[in-house]
Design a protein that fits this description.
A hairpin with a 2-residue loop joins strand 10 (216-218) and strand 11. The longest helix has 18 residues, at 246-263. It is globular, with a radius of gyration of 21 Å. Helix 2 runs antiparallel to helix 9 (233-242), helix 4 (60-70) crosses helix 8 (202-212) and helix 10 (246-263) runs parallel beside helix 13 (351-366). The protein has helices at 8-11, 16-29, 36-49, 60-70, 87-95, 117-120, 141-150, 202-212, 233-242, 246-263, 292-301, 331-339, 351-366; strands at residues 53-57, 78-82, 99-103, 125-128, 153-157, 165-166, 169-170, 177-181, 195-199, 216-218, 221-222, 270-271, 278-279, 285-288, 340-343. By secondary structure, it is an alpha/beta fold. Bound molecules: pyridoxal-5'-phosphate.
Length: 367
């Protein structure tokens, strides 16, 4: 049996005909840039999240960069995030000229270690940038109180958590702004690159329009020096076709994750902790496993598309060598990077695939 990580055909099941017809109209009529389709997606995604504004941009990375720029964060400012995130979170902080300040990961939630955030604050701190990693919502209550008390912004990196909730409230609605990616690997996937920023702040939403579109308020009226980074109209229409199915997909992901945990019982594996009140959307199904590298090779030989997300924590990435971090500084992030393995999880997966993967894991540890 082959167990792939993605099945794009399944994501279009039952809607490809209508979508293709809509795309044909857009292609023929030249509705390419910030077309009504982009606006419709922004309205629909804002309604889905429960926030006032969504602004579509070119990627999740750009969503982060443009948000930080729109908040006026740049040279001399510090932004706190975690050592075990994806490269883009920290690259975005550097790209606006600010200084990333890292906090270690929590060994049970695999999220930012809440207790370590306050000690990381300094007079230069301008924002907290927690990541809802692997689809698990970061508990926001304490971070929001801390940010409020120190007069700094909270920006959510929600690139892996479309639809995740805390007590029925979507992630992406807690901070001053939240950044989403629609990279083809994400729970809500475009057919290429795409991203968005969600916010309730009308002023911020307006600045974001300038930041994504050559600094323009209207054509040829350039107010600021800015990028050209807009959500592509074709991608917006693809996303509109998929958005109504997102909740069902996320529920199926959670169901399959439960099944994995049940089937994998009996091995010394660590799973990301589940907490009451949260709706985890399992962007990735992660296990921390003894002899990880050998297990990975064993699974890949069995045609199971397992991968490591992410093999090197942020503070050890060559790109950030000039930040002055050292090996051993964030021991939990390092331990997780050495032991974590991501098993395939797709909403269209069936129980037989889960059983097969679990069988192969058990076979590996039996030797
Ligand atoms: C995917 C991702 C990003 C970047 O999104 P792109 O669309 O690939 O630029 C940022 N942060 C996290 C946590 C991600 O997983």
């Amino acid at each position: 049996m082959k167990v792939p990580r993605y099945n794009y055909a399944a994501q279009f099941d039952g809607c490809l005909g209508v979508l293709a017809e809509r795309l044909r109209g857009m292609l023929e009529e030249g509705r390419y840039i910030l077309s009504p389709e982009v606006e419709s997606f922004e309205v629909e995604f804002a309604r889905y999240l429960g926030c006032r504004y969504v602004r579509g941009v070119n990627s999740g990375t750009d969503a982060l960069v443009l948000t930080l720029r729109s908040l006026g964060i740049g040279r001399g400012d510090e932004v706190i995030t975690q050592a075990n995130t994806f490269y883009a979170t920290v690259a975005a902080i550097r790209l606006v000229g600010a200084v990333p300040v890292l906090v270690d990961a929590d060994p049970e939630t695999f999220l930012i270690a809440e207790d370590d955030v306050e000690p990381a604050l300094s007079p230069a701190t301008r924002a907290l940038l927690p990541v809802h990693l692997y689809g698990k919502p970061t508990p926001m209550a304490r971070l929001l109180v801390l940010a409020e008390r120190h007069g700094i912004a909270v920006v959510e990196d929600a690139a892996q958590a479309h639809g995740a909730m805390i007590d029925g409230r979507r992630v992406g609605t807690f901070g001053a702004a939240a950044c989403f990616s629609f990279h083809p690997s994400k729970n809500l996937a475009a057919a290429g690159d795409g991203g968005a920023v969600a916010t309730d702040d009308a002023g911020l939403a307006e600045i974001l329009c300038e930041q994504r579109s050559l600094g323009q308020r209207s054509q040829n009226d350039h107010r600021i020096v800015a990028f050209n980074s807009r959500l592509d109209a074709i991608q917006a229409e693809v996303l509109r076709a998929k958005l109504p199915r997102l909740d069902a997909w996320n529920r199926r992901r959670a169901e399959l994750a439960r099944l994995y945990r049940a089937r994998l019982e009996g091995q010394e594996l660590t799973f990301q902790r589940l907490d009451p009140g949260e709706t985890h959307v399992f962007h990735l199904f992660q296990i921390a496993a003894p002899r990880r590298d050998d297990l990975l090779e064993h699974l890949r030989r069995s045609e199971i598309d397992a991968v490591v997300r992410y093999p090197l924590p942020i503070h050890l990435q060559p790109a950030f060598a000039d930040c002055g971090w050292r090996s051993g500084q964030f021991p939990v992030a390092e331990r997780l990077a050495r032991s974590m393995l991501c098993l395939p999880l797709r909403p269209d997966m069936n129980e037989a695939e889960i059983d097969y993967v679990a069988d192969r894991v058990h076979a590996f540890y039996r030797g």
